[in-house]
Amino acid sequence: MKDSAATAVALGSIEAIRSALVLEAGTDAARIEALRVQMSEAATKMKRAGYWALALGILLSLTVLGAVIGLPMALTGAVMAWVFGRRVRNVNEACRQYLASIQAG
Description:
This protein is an all-alpha fold. The protein has helices at residues 3-11, 14-25, 29-60, 64-104. α2 packs across α4 and α3 runs antiparallel to α4.
């Protein structure tokens, strides 16, 4: 994935993702789909990492000493899962909108 696509996923907004698609794929539908898959997979990996951090944080919180580390880790994991889940949806929506605008002319 090129720098602008990685930056678009990091920013997470639909406009940033669409501009990365325009810069990198142009009007090639196959290239747009390939970029969608790449960006979506990158965000999904981070979402899974958030779920793992959430689960590990909950497990650590079962002990009193582990709660000092576990509670912030669980909170961070929950936020990561939510943020990157949102970014996966934004990638898919941006690609759908861009393909629709290309097909409309």
